[in-house]
Design goal:
By secondary structure, this protein is of the alpha+beta class. The protein has 10 helices and 9 strands. It comes from Maribacter sedimenticola.
Amino acid sequence: MKSALQKSPIPETKAYLARTLNEPVFDPHWHFHSEYQLFLVLEGSGTRFIGDNVKSYKAGDITFTGPNLPHMWRSEHVHEQEKNIAWSKGVVIYFHENFLGENLLKTDEAIRLRQVFHKSRRGMEFTGTTATILQKLMLELLDKDGFEGILHLLKILDFISQTKEYGILASPGYTNTLREADTQRMFNVYAFVMNNFKRRMTLDELAQLTNMTPTSFSRYFKLHANKSFSEFVSEIRIGHACKLLIEQKMNVSQACYESGFSTLSNFNKQFKNITQRTPLAYKKEYEVY
């Protein structure tokens, strides 16, 4: 079993680590680590889990996660990993909070940096022009080393500390309560749901998977996911429906039934609860004329 709390990827002689990822799929394991992480998706798509936030990801997505915030990027093509044909590409930057020494963040000059580090503990996603500029800056960091690299990383952090084009991902009440055994168990639940969300799943199935009673499983899931199991399944189904509406240009009725909903009325209700708009309004918003 892969450890949930991953060993630091940064060598002891380095202030930060920036590298490209070029793999069949991104690391599909539910895990966390002590470093701050900036992550850019260059190629690939699937479902992203950060804290209690569940959302589809695609090329161009950029997130900033703080220490010990659980996360996982699950590719749409995870079953093709062994075939080495569903390649995912990205850029990841790791660094510790005190990579410039312990006293810098205490200064008046670093107030914006302290604020953005605090926000990152719930996860941040950058949008609009900010995402475009940030992608360019992250790619440039790959070609720099030595003190020039540190200065460029500071440029990146200063840039994101000033932007307003971002969203906070995990909810205010989210706390990482996971132990290693819990992480593996939650990963098994997530994998089961991702493989079966198009059909009706019962609590008895999940209880058997986790060696719990249905009531115990419901309490356990809500404690660690900060939402009920039915809410989680709805988020997965609506995320899939969004991709069907936009990428495959399905109509609302097709997306509804292809995503595991049995009635159009419930689909419309859940869609609006999660996306804050109707399926038709969402589809029109992304249409290219």
